Amino acid sequence: MIRYPDLIRAHAARTPDKIATIFEGRSFTWAEFNRRLHAMANALATLGVAPGDRIAYLGLNSHWLVEMYYVPSMIGAISVPVNHRLSLDEIAATLDDCTPTVLIVDRHFGSLAQPLLDRCPSVDHILYADWDLPGPGLPPETQHYDMLLAIAGPAAGDAFDDRASASDDTMFLFYTSGTTGRPKGVMLSHTNAFANSAGSGAVYGYRADDMLLLTGPLFHMATGGRVNTGVYYGSTMVLQARFEVVEMMELVETHRITAMTLVPTMLRMVLDHPAFPGFDISSLRCLTYGAAPMPLALMERAVEAIPGVTFVQGYGMTETAPAVAILPAMDHVPGTPGYAKLGSVGRPVPYADVRIVDENDNVLPAGEAGEVVTRGPHVMNGYWNRPEETAHAMRGGFYHTGDAGYLDEDGYLFLVGRTKEMIITGGENVYPIETENALSSHPAVAQAAVFGMPDPTWGETVHAAVALHGGREATVEDLIAHCRERIAHYKAPRAITLWVGALPLSPTNKIDKMAIRARILEDTGV
Amino acid sequence: MIRYPDLIRAHAARTPDKIATIFEGRSFTWAEFNRRLHAMANALATLGVAPGDRIAYLGLNSHWLVEMYYVPSMIGAISVPVNHRLSLDEIAATLDDCTPTVLIVDRHFGSLAQPLLDRCPSVDHILYADWDLPGPGLPPETQHYDMLLAIAGPAAGDAFDDRASASDDTMFLFYTSGTTGRPKGVMLSHTNAFANSAGSGAVYGYRADDMLLLTGPLFHMATGGRVNTGVYYGSTMVLQARFEVVEMMELVETHRITAMTLVPTMLRMVLDHPAFPGFDISSLRCLTYGAAPMPLALMERAVEAIPGVTFVQGYGMTETAPAVAILPAMDHVPGTPGYAKLGSVGRPVPYADVRIVDENDNVLPAGEAGEVVTRGPHVMNGYWNRPEETAHAMRGGFYHTGDAGYLDEDGYLFLVGRTKEMIITGGENVYPIETENALSSHPAVAQAAVFGMPDPTWGETVHAAVALHGGREATVEDLIAHCRERIAHYKAPRAITLWVGALPLSPTNKIDKMAIRARILEDTGV
Questions:
Q1: Cβ contact A195–B195 (<8 Å)
Q2: Domain boundaries, given as residue ranges, for chain B
Q3: What pLDDT, on the 0 to 100 scale, is given for residue B335?
Q4: In CATH, which of 3.40.109.10, 2.40.150.20, 2.30.38.10, 2.10.220.10 is domain B349-420?
Q5: B83 C-beta neighbours (distance < 10 Å), count
Q6: Chain B residues lying within 8 Å of A350, measured CB to CB
């Protein structure tokens, strides 16, 4: 039987005086962390929280939020770390979807408590988790987390095993910020989290003596997976409320941080910061980064600036808790056989069945691109209250990631885009990124966006929008010929729109293909 | 959801042409291994095997037995690898306990099939798994494993997911050879096996590219755990029907074996063998050994004979699937901080809550000896059909190992004996091994055995039987004084019987304390 609270009790027994969490100057040992969890589980049970209930938490990173990852599972309830970057309407929609009985807020989101309470009738109790007492902006019935805990503490038993969730029971709902439709609640079990911690932690190279810095948002599994792994190993977890470069460097220096997760952009911000040379961050030994490849020049700069640091790439998603494939530290070392695979996201973790399939779920051979699907103990229980979307995502027993990619002969996974972006022209599949890479290799091309356009004969045709470098010229025919020299003819654009000025960007600073495509369709009157 | 057949299908998809099993010259790839499993699951389902049924296997190590570890779980049934070293009566008692519907035998145990069939009415089908056809000594209805498989093969689907066992369901019954009473069937789940494979494999230092030699009996979890881990990693497993020194060295040389489990006695047999220098066993990189400490001189001899080989010690038992604590390779390297811990069995694996408790289950502090208890995802579902013995073994939620030991300040576990051997004298606990060690440090003492004797005042008193070295002399008073200088007075013997000649040995070559104690009780007329 897999139960995260059991893992925590093990560390409390084994290393009671080792620090479990550090947040804004306050630290708790593993014994204290365990006691707080038990007291809070007792408090929630006293409030009437029953097995299966949801407890939502709306706040920045803190030890309170880490505690609330696990407390609900001790009484069979489910923890819901809410995405605080959403608008009030979106947050209310999330709560309407999971109907929590308890909502916990911190001072940053205190002002949302009353509006959310007014709109979400499921919420019976508002708790406040922060350094100060609940202020006047909060609903009058708001109770302070630590007060509840202090009252419940002496009454807390050592265990709630009879009511606890276990193994395949859902312990978390993490909402995905899907690009289409309302966010979906991903149901993750103890088994999902354990597979990631026990099975991928070793591949990442995590250790019990790591000092972990958690700076990404805890409502997201990229950081959530690190919390679960930190708890599995009994490491010390330092929490930053939210990422900020200088404070992060201070935390690394002060706490001699050894391991953390950074996206390449964050790493560049650190290395570029004028204050960087003044900090001693030599304690860092392992930097984990997300699915985006690490630019080689950036990696070399980092290795020079932080001698001995190793890089590990993880690829995954909320639905897989999260690791699916890992490119280990060894494959980042020049001269090793794996170094040629730096453009990949690594090999599947040992317990993950990863396959590439076509639109009809036929398995494709090595080297052929299709949709990445996966099965194993890391795959979610499903989407909360969405049996149809669950069945669709899990067809054939495999979770369909929506990512397009291929496995090479050595089993390394290369991503080529999203399946939703895939163009089918005359029965052939084209992934826009291949065509975009071909176009971008032309010296006159500054930006290129490739997408499908409706066509009565071919179903779709490959269409590109291209912005040229100032002072450079190229004709549509030049560019198409350039592509045909580099990729299959059917992958080359059939038509190109030369864009005046830069291509429009989405709010997340990606090229907004939807807007470009809509504008071209409008202009051509299709 | 954790399902071993899913892990196998992942390897069949990922590395279809890699070898999974090698036995007596016949090898199967992971794709073939997976196909055989599916065909056999289909065959058993056709025979009428239903979820929850038991399938017993009585035979030496082979690929057939490895297959039958997992086939039953694909249709929700339970695999029972039977201890073939037992007498016919004991084997019949095992089958009476688990009432299998199918019994599989090989040529070594074919003659037992009819007598077992006569005595065990639950058995509906006898299968024969070996290179030859079922001979005249077998019941006429015996079917050949590979025939059934060949017939069922074409009809076998790709999956039996709807009927398969999962996560916490029992997939194995391993019978313990308990020292008292009838053997008990230990119910192990996918979760138990997965925790050991994913969570302890990395601590052992196992790798996907290991060539594993399985030479210990597969009816025992010491080897069974290696099979599960080999399957988890998708390694190649070479099977030896049963341990034999020269054939083992041939297998190591032929298959370039990298990892195997050896008890110290087996390692000594290898190094001492006159043919040893003629074999090239330089491929070995990782030797795992059981709970008995590795004699330093033996380790040094082995490192000299097999350059670069590392040692890893595992401590565990059937009920914990099996790893509880591991002394990693690093702690076997002279000059490392862990080297001082060579007398321990290492530290608990990350997921195992290990505590030391007194007779009333109160947790004892570091350094104090008591019973080793453990909780976590590695702990069995219970004993088959023995709710009372299960409840007793699992009291307080912890599995009680029956081993006596202590955890030192660094969290290393040291074993001092069996709790059943513990003497309680005047309310104080005495572990015989401490007194035996004190006696053995006297230059005249050749052998010492310590046990409790009934006493109306103290409950028990500490009694020793001592054999002296030929030509040496010591009085009982000398020996008691010698002990009192070294250990607490209450741990020193209150009485000593000077034995004439060597102390009697049990069939397993241990000093037979029961016989000694019985003889002394008889002589003194108590």
A1: no
A2: 4-242, 349-420, 422-524
A3: 84
A4: 2.30.38.10
A5: 17
A6: 198, 208, 232-234
